[in-house]
Amino acid sequence: MTDIQLIQTDKRMLEGIGSFCLRSKKKSPGYINKNKWLHDRFEEGLRYIQLIDNKKQVGFIEYTDAEYSSRVVHADNYSVIHCLWVSETGKGYGSELINKCLQDAKQQGKHGVVVVTNPSTSWTPSKEIFLNNGFTLIEEAPYQFELLVYPFEKSPVLPYFPTNWEERLKKYNNLTVLRSFQCPFVDVATENIKEGAKKLGLEVTIINIKSREELMELSPTPYGIFSVIYKGKLISFHRLTVHSVTKRIKELL
C-alpha cells in the first residue's frame, strides 16, 4: 500500500536527509550553496515541502511570501512558488504539492498564489500542471516568461510584471552574471560562463544578488536568480554548455 507523506523541511532536516535539489551531488558547491540559502530563507517563512512515497523522496515544492521571493513580480500578499519538481509524472505528485501550497496560502490569509513559468527551459515549472489545477495565465514578459495566478475570492488586485526589462539590460556592457543561489544549478552555470569567456579572452563580472530590493531593481527577467548579459543583450537566464556560451558571445563581438 502506498504511503505518501508531505514533510516540511526545516534546518534540522537539512542536516539529516538534506534538500531534494541536486540530491545526487551532495558534495557539490551548488548543493552546499542551496542548502545554505534555504537555511537563511527559513527565517523569512519560506516553505520547502518534500513528498515522500514509501520512504523515498519523489518530489518537492518551494514557495514563500512575495516580499521575500526570488521572482521579479509585484504580488503583494500573495505566495510565490519558486520550484515544483517530481521524479515521476502521472501519479498525482505535482497536484498534491500544489494543493498543499494553496492550503497554506489560504490559512495565512493570502490573496492567492502565483508562479512564473517559461516553456523554453526546465529551470521553471511547466505551466500545464498549474493550468490543470485552477491557475490562470494573466501576463507575459519578454523571453517567453509567463505569469500564472490562482486568486482566492475577493482578491483586490492581481499580480503583475515590471515593464522596464530593456532598460535594465542597458546598464551592462561588460560580460556580467547576476545570480543568487536559490537554484543549485547556478554554480555550474556560472562556471560554464567563466570557461567560455576565458576561451574568448573576456573577463566576467559576477554580481551576487543579496536582497529582494536588489533583485527587483537589477534583474532583467522575471526569473531573477540567473542572468548573463553582454553589451546590453541577454545571453541567457539558465545554464548553457561552454560551447553555447562561446557561440552566443561571438555573435555580439
Protein topology:
Elements: E1 4-8, H1 11-15, H2 29-41, E2 47-53, E3 56-65, E4 78-86, H3 93-107, E5 112-117, H4 127-131, E6 136-141, E7 145-151, H5 165-169, E8 176-179, H6 186-199, E9 205-208, H7 212-218, E10 226-230, E11 233-236, H8 242-250
Parallel strand pairs: 4-5, 8-9
Antiparallel strand pairs: 1-2, 2-3, 3-4, 5-7, 6-7, 8-10, 10-11
Structure described in brief:
The chain has eight helices and eleven strands. It is an alpha+beta fold.
Description:
With 253 residues, the chain is of the alpha+beta class. 29% of the residues lie in helices and 26% in strands. It contains eight helices and eleven strands. The chain has helices at 11-15, 29-41, 93-107, 127-131, 165-169, 186-199, 212-218, 242-250, and strands at 4-8, 47-53, 56-65, 78-86, 112-117, 136-141, 145-151, 176-179, 205-208, 226-230, 233-236. The strands form two sheets. The chain has a seven-stranded mixed beta sheet.
Keywords:
253 residues; alpha+beta; seven-stranded mixed beta sheet; 11 strands
Oligomer: single chain
Structural class: alpha+beta
Task: Name the helix and strand elements from N-terminus to C-terminus, one letter apiece.
Answer: EHHEEEHEHEEHEHEHEEH
Fraction in helix = 25-40%
Name the poorly predicted regions: none
| Main sheet overview | 7 strands, mixed
Strand content: 25-35%
Shape estimate: globular
Average pLDDT taken over every residue = 91
Overall strand count: 11
Q: Order of strands in the sheet with the most strands?
A: 1-2-3-4-5-7-6
Number of helices: 8
Cα gyration radius (Å): 18 Å
Taking the alpha carbons of the first and last residues, their distance comes to 60 Å
